[in-house]
Amino acid sequence: MTLVMFVLGILLGAGLWVLAAPAFAAPVFERTNFRGRSLPTAAGVVVVLVVVLLDAAVAVLVTLGWDPPLAAVPGLRLATMAALGFGLLGLLDDLGGEGQSGGFTGHLKALAAGRLTTGAIKLFGGGALAVVLVASWRPDHGLGWLLADAALVALCANLGNLFDRAPGRTTKVTLVAFAVLVIVAGADAELAGVAAIVGAGAGLIVPDLRERLMLGDAGANVLGAAIGLGIVLAGDDSDGVRIGVLVVVAALNLISERVSFSKVIRETAPLRAFDMLGRDPLDVPPPAPVPPPAPVLREQPPESSEEPPPAPVLREEPPKPPEEPPAPPAPPA
After folding, report:
1. Which of 58, 176, 204, 237 is paired with 290 by a 20 to 30 Å CA distance?
2. Does residue 36 fall inside a structural domain?
């Protein structure tokens, strides 16, 4: 079922974008990317819609008598909750957070100054949402594991956003991470919802690479959270692995405060090649603005260097004398 949901996610993601692209042409979504091109942001909302639609379809089929794998439905419901929650928080930051200070340090400094940024709302809201998700899956696993697994989900969501600095980068990283997860843990039924999210992101990768859209936080956070949730769902018997992944993810989040991931990728040949796969070269200039049409000028006759001929002098003619009236006819004899 996991593979089926992944394929359905790709198909629905690509199809929904074709249908929904005109709606994202509204000025409220318009942003300028690193190349100076104007693109719609928050296209990751499509990923959320795909998961909701698939979850609704499964609910209808179950009501009609279909018997899915035991863990598929609970895993799909958690994935839907994660997509809706992290998608909403990301959308808030996409539309209301332009120009605000970023990073953990920036948001905490703004909070200390009495200002709650949209990034801080996303940070704390994402942490609370992760606690709810993990508690719904493992209600009796203990406070320590609850907080650790919630931190894993929330930090993976933020890491997805940190990679979203170039076309298709977050989706590529998510696909690689999901492939590793499936190889290590197997394509178990509880990963069906995670597969739907990752597939929906893959369905948007072509227009993303072609710089026709930006996932925005509404998409990048959802993709990252899906990987963290997948590790939690598949890690019942691998507590040590989850702790190891948590340490790595937390370290990457902290390193990002001082180190630019984009710079590291540019300076590392294999990473740069993978990052540029399917993208336009970096030296492609932005499209030139279309100049306004030039005014139509009427041709003027060429100026002559010769002096114009003098105007003719008109002489006044004397008035004509009045004509004499004709003589009266002679009387008859």
Report:
1. 204
2. no
